[in-house]
Design a protein that fits this description.
The protein is α+β, with helices and mostly antiparallel strands. The protein has helices at 4-7, 19-30, 36-43, 47-59, 93-101, 127-138, 162-166, and strands at residues 79-87, 106-111, 118-124, 144-147, 150-151. It starts with a helix and ends in a 13-residue tail after the last helix.
């Protein structure tokens, strides 16, 4: 596990955001395709000034990309499985991570404290898919000492967005409509 420090993403320094930055993040998290003109009206700035703000937030990596949220069930992957893992003391961490990263169904891999070293989250189609994933892809990985399998039965709270975090910290009205 001592090699894990090279693999884990390090926390970035906090970026100071003013009220307008927070409003822009809030509005963009609601609709990443919103026009700069609409954003400008909502925050009381010119579209070029908003464009500069957004570019600065991108350069500072506060905004790291724009995304699409999909319904995994509609894509044929309704199942969610969590697999906590313990690594053998002599395990080749690079090899283990390469094997796991090569599994397309892996949606998240985090290092944790406690009795496990990592927890992986996978999207699966059905029981047969989980069986094949375990037997053919995960169990053969050298260096995995112990794993467990936890099937998700259904989401109660979905993944939170920046909008959820900023909701109570910004005063915002509905976006103006495009003319």
């Amino acid at each position: 596990m001592s090699n894990m420090t090279r693999e884990v993403q390090k926390p970035r320094p906090v970026v100071e955001l003013d009220e307008i930055d927070r409003k822009l993040l809030f509005l963009l998290s609601d609709d990443p395709r919103v026009s700069q003109r609409q954003l400008a009206k909502a925050v009381g700035m010119s579209p070029p000034a908003v464009g500069e703000r957004i570019a600065r937030l991108e350069r500072q990596q506060v905004i790291r990309g724009y995304t699409t949220t999909v319904d995994w069930s509609a894509l044929g992957y309704p199942g969610l499985v969590y697999i906590p893992m313990t690594l053998a003391t002599d395990a080749d961490l690079g090899e283990i991570l390469a094997e796991l990263r090569g599994i397309a169904e892996l949606t998240e891999l985090v290092v944790v404290t406690g009795s496990y070293d990592m927890i992986a989250r996978f999207r699966i189609r059905d029981h047969a898919h989980l069986q094949a994933l375990l037997l053919d892809r995960i169990w053969p990985i050298r260096g995995l000492q112990r794993i467990e399998t936890f099937l998700g039965l259904g989401e109660v709270v979905g993944e939170r967005t920046v909008r959820d975090l900023l909701e109570n910290s910004v005063q915002i009205e509905a976006l103006p409509r495009e003319d």
